[in-house]
Amino acid sequence: MSHHYVEVRRVTYAYPDATLALRDVSFRIEHGEAVGIVGANGAGKSTLLLHLNGLLTPTEGSVVIGDIPVAAETREQIHRSVGFVFQDADDQLFMPTVLDDVAFGPMNMGLSQAEARARAQAALDLVDAAQLATRAPYRLSGGEKRSAAIAGVLAMSPSILVLDEPSAGLDPAARRRLIALLCSFSHTRIIATHDLDLVLDVCKRVLVLHGGRLLADGAPRDIFNDTELLASCHLEAPLSWQRRS
Amino acid sequence: MSRIDVALRDLRSLDDLARRDSPLTRLDARAQVITTLVFSVVVVSFDRYAVSALLPLALYPISLAALGDLPARPLLRKLAIAAPFALLVGLFNPLLDRAPLLTLGEFAIAGGWVSFASIMLRFALTVGSALVLIAGTGMHELCAALGRLGVPGVFTAQLLFLFRYSFVLGGEASSMMTAYELRSGGRRPGVNDYGRLAGHLLLRAFERAQRIHRAMIARGFDGELRSATSRIWTRRDTVFVLGWCAFFLVVRWVNIPQWLGQAVTGQLP
Amino acid sequence: MWALSGLALAYSARRVEAQARDYTAPLMGVLGAFVFAAQMINFSIPATGSSGHLGGGLLLSVLLGPHAALIVIASVLTVQALFFADGGLLALGANIFNLGVLPCFVAYPLIYRAIASAGASDSRVVAATLAAAVAGLLLGSLGVVLQTVASGITSLSFSSFVTLMVPIHLAIGIVEGLATSALLLFIRRARPDLLDRAAAPRTFAARFRPLFVSLAVAAAVTAGMLSWFASTQPDGLEWSVDRAAGIAGVTAPGPGVHGWLARVQEGTSFLPDYDFATKAHASDGAAEPAWPNVSAGTSVAGLTGGGITLALVWLVAWLIRRRHQIESRRKAE
Fold it and tell me: Whole-angstrom Cα distance, residue C88 to residue C94?
């Protein structure tokens, strides 16, 4: 479990209508790293993320997760190592109760009901949402849904966490809790987000996408100080850095 | 509140009632389903002019509602809202079937009125028991129970998904219609606009389904939905089912009110 | 009705399981939620003042194929029966048949598919949709008529009964056809790939399977309806009749006529002499001395007993509630 690196090798992805969403993207993320993927809307962030657990297959190039190439045959293994938290929590929480939903992954892995429940309870405790266990997903607030979705992924004990816009729609308190949670994990964390301040708080490395190309890969400080780069990618410096006028 | 919002609120409130803890919700959902089915069949099996014979059956929904501490007013309101269905159907009975069936002293009551009353009563009984069933089990438990009673998984999964995503899609539909009405001066859309409005909703539904599917695959979905919790059938459940079914059968064969009334008024058949 | 619908559902469930593509489950659920929400959106019908809304059986058949579509529409009807008291559980079987089995297994394969194959022009799609919708509803009305006539009472002849039912169901069918075709055309332009979902069967046998199924269903319909009526479950019919009329929200006097006709059957079917109702109607209330079982004494006793029963029921309920209150008060302390 300790050498679960993520390696993306010259990945190109074209939509059915032939427009390129990703062009020749390559990078490697080591175990335990917290990496932020930033870029304007349409830059290819979500598309890239979907390649990391095999939901999309590259038109060219390949993705390898800890010596296992991402392919149809290795799907199950990949899904156990890579936990994916989707942008819209409603898409992810489809079971009648939160507990059932968080236990969905463990149940599919073949665990008994009791074991699955225990895992689910533990995961909910981790995200500080134990009291949500018997609630119905449609009754939760945005922040609660996000926590439940993360718990649902944690319950499968992945070594890599991929999150798509995790702080979108959260109120400040919920956002703060999310940041604290993400900082507390030792998993590899790959976070696609517009929230550059979250990146500052959580990530040690930033990948900048624009037009499907990887334009920069470095420390947050360096990237966010490069005003030219940011401008050309339709980005700005984190809000906390901008001078209050 | 728009029609959609009201409907969603009703879905939510009934399901919420089922999540509370009470002697009613502690009963296994399977027991409640079976008993309610038998109840419905018994109600329907009476003849057209049965009115007072049906009355003892009211004990089932009413006592269950009390057992579950269900608020009377919302349930009665639901019955009242749905009553026009029955009214519409039964209303013509008194007009057509005018021959007197009963006489009360001076008054002759036409058969049509009796069958009308029977229809309304049957409506109240079956609908009432269905409402109590939902309020006592909730969608989640109900579907699990149905599954264990032999209903195909495809159908119970469908019910669960439908219920779950009604709130999401209903919310979208509601916002969409509000936005439309604000720009159309409160008027309803014509067929073409409807096609576009509902069409967009439909497209988004497809995209959402694809995203949900991705999320399911990402967590190892292999085609079967499994629950992590299951209820155990207790002796109390057996007693519940057998007891009530016995009561229903007795009511079916013995006209209890008639018997009571005769005992009281001293009348001989 | 319940038996027929149940059989159809079981068959469909098995077919869906067998041929399910990956995302069928969430798609069915979400489309069900769509139909549920869309049914609450009313649109105004051109050239009339009234409003209508989507039924959904035909649309779902085009989008999902008949088997999955039946499951979806049945689920919507079930939720409505349970939560909104729409006719209750009794009518569910009949509703699933009229609003589910008929559009999905008869109207869709026999009519829609016949007229609008893949790649058909827009106008063909509209024509096919209208035809299928109207046909589906007319079939439903035919069923109602068949059953009523089979029960042997109505003072109306078969033909006059039919002429009364046809215009109403025609109107409802047109509304359904309009709504469905509006949606189908929109989808065609925006995402034509979504319409390829219900794969066209290629083999000879496969192409005719829907036909065989439909014929079998139609045969079963007639047999089933006759025997079903022989059992004393009339209310399902009324609800479905009402439902079929009500679901399009047409504010015409239609439902009343339905109800009236059904009532004719209701009011007279248990009487030994089937002319009774007309006689009674004509003579305006003259008592029929041959009417059995009812005497003044029993009536009074029955009513008194009824009153006592009700009182007892309320007493029981009140006692239970009291116990609840005492217990919860005790817990609070």
Answer: 11
Residues of A in contact with B212 (CB under 8 A): 91-92, 94
CB B117 within 8 A of CB B51: yes
Considering CB atoms only, which of C79, C190, C287 is closest to B203?
A: C190
Taking the domains of chain C in order of start, what are their residue ranges? 2-276, 297-333
Strand pairing report for A6-14 and C43-44: unpaired
Q: Is the pLDDT confidence value at C43 over 90? A: no
Binary contact (B69, C321; C-beta < 8 A) = yes
- Residues A113, B218: C-beta atoms closer than 8 Å: no
The H-or-E segment that residue A101 falls in is: helix A98-102
Confidence of residue C154 (pLDDT cuts 50, 70, 90): very low
Superfamily of domain covering A6-232: P-loop containing nucleotide triphosphate hydrolases (3.40.50.300)
Euclidean distance between CA atoms B22 and C119, whole angstroms? 58
Domain C2-276 matching CATH 1.10.1760.20: the answer reads: yes
φ, ψ (nearest 5 deg) of residue A83: -100, 130
pLDDT of residue A212: 93
- Give residue limits of the domains in chain A: 6-232
Per-residue confidence (pLDDT) for residue C50, from 0 to 100: 79
Whether A79 and B214 lie within 8 Å, measured CB to CB:
no
All structural domains of chain B with their residue ranges: 1-151+236-269, 152-233
Cα distance between residue A99 and residue A96, in whole Å: 9
Chains sharing 3 or more CB pairs under 8 A with chain C: B
With CB atoms and an 8 Å threshold, state whether C263 touches B96.
yes
Question: Looking at the complex, does the CB of residue B258 fall below 8 Å from at least one CB of chain C?
Answer: yes
Span A211-225, pLDDT tens digits: 999 999 999 999 999
Q: Which of B123, B134, B158 sits opposite C88 (nearest CB)?
A: B123
Instruction: List chain B residues with pLDDT less than 70.
Output: 1, 85-86, 88-99, 101-107, 111-112, 267-269
Query: Mapped to the 3 state alphabet, what secondary structure does chain C carry?
Result: CHHHHHHHHHHHHHHHHHHCCCCHHHHHHHHHHHHHHHCCCCEECCCCCCEECCCCHHHHHHHHCHHHHHHHHHHHHHHHHHHHCCCHHHHHHHHHHHHHHHHHHHHHHHHHHHHCCCCCCHHHHHHHHHHHHHHHHHHHHHHHHHHHHHCCCCCCCHHHHHHHHHHHHHHHHHHHHHHHHHHHHHHHHHCHHHHHCCCCCCCHHHHHHHHHHHHHHHHHHHHHHHHHHHCCCCHHHHHHHHHHHHCCCCCCCHHHHHHHHHHHHHHHHCCCCCCHHHHHHHHCCCCCCCCCCCCHHHHHHHHHHHHHHHHHHHHHHHHHHHHHHHHHHHHHC
- pTM for the model: 0.79
Assign C239 a pLDDT band (cuts: 50, 70, 90).
Answer: very low
